[in-house]
Design goal:
Number of domains of chain B: 1
Number of domains of chain A: 4
Largest sheet of chain A: 10 strands, mixed
Distance between the termini of chain A: 24 Å
Radius of gyration of chain A: 33 Å
Distance between the termini of chain B: 37 Å
Largest interface: A-B, 26 and 30 residues
Number of helices of chain A: 25
Strand order of the largest sheet of chain B: 6-7-8-3-9-10
Shape of chain B: globular
Shape of chain A: globular
Number of helices of chain B: 9
Number of strands of chain B: 10
Oligomer: heterodimer
Order of helices and strands of chain B: EEEHEEHEHHHHEHEHEEH
Number of strands of chain A: 24
Helix content of chain B: 25-40%
Structural class of chain A: alpha+beta
CATH architecture of chain B: 3-Layer(aba) Sandwich
CATH topology of chain B: Rossmann fold
Structural class of chain B: alpha/beta
Strand content of chain A: 15-25%
Chain lengths: 849, 242
């Protein structure tokens, strides 16, 4: 029996490859994601190994936070560790973020994704920080800088040039470039820019006199690293720890891997969506091929094959296809990994890479998922095959598949759909303390809804296909009419093929509606609610904590075009063990951010905090209660809640006084400055004047709120484009399903097409007929998808309403475009089967059985 | 003495229900002897194929009983019926006898493959030699002529030495030479190897190869004839139609 299966598969290579293609793409995407993130992880491992090579012990701060500037240690106490026994050499170092190098036109370099680093760079035998000179010399004194090789090459800097650098709290200043450094083999650190100074200079630049990030230690020859660590420990300053160089490298690598895990999950989600769509395609293909092989399978039954044997035969077929497709998919994964790298670089996420890495885990996951999905898809068709009566081998009239009663279909479909909706709404509206996160319920619910709708869809395939087919009848006359009738004649096939497309289109629609609605919400928020005309903010638009010198706000406040300014500082702290934004506000903050209702005092004093109503409600923090925030530099600090406010512009606010903020973040700089125009000045006039005032701070930009809204919209649209691009994979797989269905149905209608050709249907008309049917199926899927997508978006926005997402916008133009595009793509993906149909030999086709 | 290979008792099969109900066979009782070659004849719609399908365990009766040997097929589950078809019965159909993706030899041994048994090699060789298929074994059905395809189907039926072979218009799609060859081979199998064959046909020449002919009309047995010749069969049909 195995031989029958394998021979059958081999004899139908086209069918095999069409079925496999859906799996290849899905598995390929998953394998590609793993290969890509593993490769990045390996590259980072390499970086850290390089960075800590030759370093025996690293002294660093014991910090829980990963995001932000790092924790600083007292210089004198660290330097004193150099006196500990068996410490041969101790090299203190300091590093910081948000130190921006300007290109030769005075524009900031980077800021779109990877960070902008500054490091101390000291000549030593200890390989500290991983940078090594490529050319020139080490920086010495307050006038000198060394930059990374990539930045130097990309922006044509040569030794001897003046390089302008802006630190968070400082205006721009020129330094002489005395050297170019590489990071081991790499020209830069994963796309980040690096400016290297001597220790005193960077301490001044970052306002960190007498502070360090840590130190690298080399132990005396023959001394044990562990013993030296033990003798260092009693003398370590508070908040510091000593680690062997090896452990430090491993720890950093683990941190990166955790960071990558999120990225990995994000990408894998799209891979699994693609495979879910693939399930529909494969199930449909198997069903069609089982129908086509009715006589062959029934012959086997007549000759004594048991129902179970026939069932197993179809399943073995699925296993073989799954294995072949998964193996090809793993190979394709390498190509996709390269593509992902290119795509993400195009979006500005440059990450370091090494030679592609294929882990055993990737192979196992790919095989399990690929084979699993194929076999699951084949379960129902296999059951159908096993239930074929043997008599079907002899009686042509029994070949037509048994149809489930419409009422059964309606009942089952409705039950499944409603269960899916229940799970979906449960995930959206019920908050859970334990178990899987809510988003899992939303995802699973949505998947069940898709299955339910695809069960129901044959019920309305007839009228809908008739409607969609109407323009083709008008346009193509007879071929259009035949296409319409063909789509209607096989409502199950039409709707099964359309269902796959429906899923992709639903998700794309969901993304479009969400983006349009969020844009609208932001427009409303920015446009009307904030009582400011102009904002000064960092050019690093992705990082809300990127800061600039407070001088700017001082200058703005003195300008005659300005009525009033309100400074804000934004930083990250741990609240309830979660990283949360904490802002420092001025007493006039509520004048700029109007409240709907409030209690208590909205002007926090020392160790006092003002929070938004929802935070107060969820965490049971009434006026007078205590709230703990943990800062990187100063550790856990307790604040008393003195004010609670609610309002559209107060989403997730935790606000402390500016004095407290500066104390806890140890930096005096602003992240946002809100400006109200004096009477007689338009926002644009204020913007022009302030831009001139900020000329020596190129890391800050002055924007009107219209521009701000456009910028935010652009960011959201960028993300939407990325997501739509990744969902495109699911749509492509669904379109392959269209090709598949049309190929099989042309094959099935060989005789019929031969007859039509014999009575005078031209080749061109034959092609039109096939393409039009594909188009009807595709548009059917798109229409279903758009309806469900709009509904899902509405439900999600309803659930998010209390978080300020109040607008619900249906981008009709975009969605119409999607329907037309899908129809067109249906035609494109039917070109091949249409061509095959038109090339059929008329005589052979008529004789065909 | 020849015993009974298969028999039907008051066998009735009705297709459809209500106004559209069609009685294909109507209380048919008949016996087929071992080691005999029986032909079932009748015009289209006389119920001859239905009778054969029900006797072979391919279809179920509406009422009455059919037996293979002593086994009442109506008492069997689908699984048991499958085993009966696999181990005790062989088939030759009018068309679509062969799995198109398998070679001639693989098609011949298919019932053994299904059962997971090794074929009796000596017997297989003699069947293949008798049917003149020796040089065609590695060919796919599409590469064989119609006559060769039916001979492969006959070889498949004979190879597993079933108690009884059902043939449904085996020569229906063949030219007269191929037809004669095939029918000769079937008659030879009965004479020389003691095979039992039941053949459905509407062709008097085909029927003349049998030991006995049963005539069906409107779902009932209307007549029968021993040691038929083509002319006698033709005359009988004419008289029945008159």
């Amino acid at each position: 029996m195995l031989r029958v299966t394998l021979k059958g598969l081999w004899a139908h290579k086209l069918r095999l490859s069409l079925t496999a293609l859906a799996i290849v793409l899905g598995v390929g995407f998953i394998a590609g994601t793993f290969v890509y993130t593993d490769t990045i992880a390996k590259a980072f491992d390499g970086i850290f190994e390089d960075a800590f090579r030759g370093v025996d012990i690293v002294i660093s701060a014991d910090s829980e936070l990963q995001f932000g500037e790092g924790v600083y240690l007292p210089e004198a106490e660290i330097l004193a560790l150099g006196e500990v026994e068996d410490v041969d050499e101790l090299v203190p170092f300091l590093q910081g973020l948000g130190v921006v190098i300007l290109d030769k036109d005075g524009e900031p370099i980077g800021g779109g994704g990877p960070p902008q680093f500054a490091f101390s760079f000291t000549e030593t035998d200890v390989d500290s920080g991983g940078f090594s000179l490529r050319s020139g010399r080490y920086p010495q004194g307050p006038e000198e800088v060394v930059i990374d090789a990539r930045t130097a090459t990309d922006h044509n800097f040569a030794i001897g040039d003046t390089v302008f650098v802006v630190a968070p709290a400082r205006p721009e200043r020129g330094y002489t470039l005395v050297g170019i450094a590489g990071f081991g083999e790499l020209d830069n650190l994963g796309g980040a820019t690096s400016a290297l100074f001597d220790l005193d200079t960077i301490q001044a630049l970052l306002d960190r006199e007498d502070q360090l990030t840590g130190a690298s230690i080399q132990v005396a020859p023959g001394a044990s690293v562990d013993e030296v660590i033990a003798s260092l420990e009693p003398s370590l300053p508070e908040g510091a720890r000593a680690l062997s160089g090896q452990s430090a490298a491993e720890e950093q690598a683990v941190e990166i891997q955790e960071g990558l895990a999120f990225f990995n999950t994000f990408l894998l989600t799209f891979g699994f969506i693609a495979l879910f769509v693939g399930t529909f395609i494969i199930a449909n293909t198997f069903r069609i091929t089982v129908t086509q092989r009715t006589r062959e399978l029934a012959l086997l039954r007549a000759l004594g094959a048991s129902a179970r044997q026939v069932n197993r035969m179809v399943l073995i077929e699925a296993v073989v296809i799954g294995i072949v497709a998964s193996v090809v998919g793993i190979a394709a994964g390498f190509g996709l990994a390269l593509l992902l790298k290119t795509v993400f670089e195009a979006f500005g996420f440059a990450l370091p890479t090494a030679a592609p890495t294929l882990q055993l885990r990737t192979i196992v996951v790919a095989l399990v998922v690929g084979v699993g999905v194929t076999v699951i898809s084949a379960i129902l068709p296999a059951r159908r095959a096993s239930r074929l009566p043997p008599i079907a081998a002899l009686r042509q009239d029994l070949v037509a598949p048994r149809r489930k009663a419409l009422t059964t279909r309606a009942i089952v479909g409705s039950i499944v759909t409603v269960s899916g909706l229940s799970v979906l709404f449960f995930g959206l509206f019920v908050s859970l303390d334990a178990g899987p996160p809510e988003i899992v319920y939303v995802g699973v619910g949505a998947a069940i809804v898709f299955i339910g709708v695809s069960i129901l869809s044959p019920l309305f395939a007839r009228p809908v296909a008739r409607l969609i087919g109407w323009p083709f009848v008008k346009l193509y006359r007879l071929p259009g009419k035949l296409a319409q009738e063909n789509a209607i004649r096989a409502p199950r096939r039409t709707s099964a093929t359309a269902a796959a497309l429906m899923i992709g289109v639903t998700l794309v629609t969901l993304a479009s509606v969400m983006a349009a609605s969020i844009n609208q919400t932001i427009d409303e928020l920015i446009g009307s609610d904030i009582e400011a005309d102009v904002i000064i903010r960092s050019t690093s638009e992705f990082d809300p904590t990127a800061s600039f010198t407070p001088e700017l706000a001082d200058r703005a406040a003195k300008d005659e075009s300005v009525d009033e300014v309100s400074r804000q500082q934004t930083g990250v702290a741990l609240f309830n063990e979660t990283e949360t934004f904490v802002i420092g506000i001025e007493p006039n903050y509520p004048d700029f951010f109007p409240v709907d209702s409030s209690e208590g005092n909205l002007n926090p004093g020392p160790n006092e905090v003002v929070i938004e109503r929802t935070i107060s409600d969820v965490n049971e923090l009434p006026i007078g209660s205590e709230l703990q925030l943990s800062f990187e530099s100063t550790g856990p600090t307790t604040f008393t809640v003195v004010g609670i406010a609610s309002g559209d512009t107060w989403t997730d606010v935790i606000a402390i006084s500016q004095a407290d903020w500066v104390e806890n973040y140890e930096i005096e700089s602003d992240t946002q400055v809100f400006v109200r125009a004096a009477s007689g000045f338009t926002p644009e006039e204020v913007q022009t004047r302030l831009t001139a005032l900020a000329e020596d701070v190129p890391t800050a930009q002055v924007q009107t709120f219209d521009e701000l809204a456009d910028d935010v919209a652009e960011q959201i649209n960028g993300l939407l484009n990325l997501i739509t691009g990744l969902l495109g994979l699911a749509v492509i797989i669904a379109l392959i399903g269209v090709t598949n269905t049309m190929t099989l149905s042309v094959f099935e209608r060989t005789r019929e097409i031969g007859l039509l050709r014999a009575v005078g249907l031209s080749r061109r008309q034959t092609r039109r007929m096939v393409r039009a049917e594909a188009s009807i199926i595709a548009v059917f899927g798109a229409v279903l998808g758009i309806l469900i997508g709009v509904f899902f978006a509405w439900a999600i926005l309803l659930a998010l309403a209390d978080q300020g997402f109040t607008a619900f916008v249906i981008p009709i133009g975009t969605l119409t475009l999607w329907i037309l595009a899908t129809g067109l793509l249906g035609v494109v993906f039917a070109i091949l089967p249409a061509w095959r149909a038109s090339r059929l030999d008329v005589l052979e086709a008529i004789a065909y059985e | 003495m020849t015993s009974t290979a298969a028999r039907a008792v008051e066998a009735t099969k009705v297709f459809g229900s209500g106004d559209t109900a069609v009685t294909a066979i109507d209380r048919v009782s008949v016996e087929f002897q071992r080691e005999r070659y029986t032909a079932i004849m009748g015009p289209s719609g006389s119920g001859k194929s239905t009778l054969m399908h029900c006797m072979a365990g391919l279809d179920y009766l509406t009422s009455g009983q059919v037996f293979i040997g002593d086994q009442n097929l109506g008492e069997l589950t689908d699984r048991e019926l499958t085993v009966v078809r696999r181990d005790r019965v062989g088939f030759i159909f009018q068309a679509f006898n062969l799995v198109p993706t398998l070679t001639a030899l693989e098609n011949i041994t298919l019932p053994n493959d299904i059962a997971g048994r090794d074929p009796d090699q000596d017997w297989l060789d003699s069947v293949i030699e008798n049917l003149g298929l020796g040089d065609r074994l590695e060919h796919r059905p599409a590469e064989l002529s119609g006559g060769q395809q039916q001979r492969v189907a006959a070889a498949r039926a004979l190879a597993s030495r079933p108690e009884l072979i059902f043939a449904d218009e085996p020569s229906g799609n063949l030219d007269s030479t191929s037809s004669a060859e095939l029918l000769d081979l079937l008659a030879q199998a009965v004479r020389e190897f003691g095979q039992t064959i039941v053949m459905v046909t509407h062709d008097p020449i085909a029927a003349s190869y049998a030991d006995r002919v049963i005539f069906l009309g409107d779902g009932r047995i209307v007549d029968e004839m021993a040691d038929p010749t083509a002319d006698r069969v033709l005359d009988r049909i004419k008289s029945l139609e008159a």
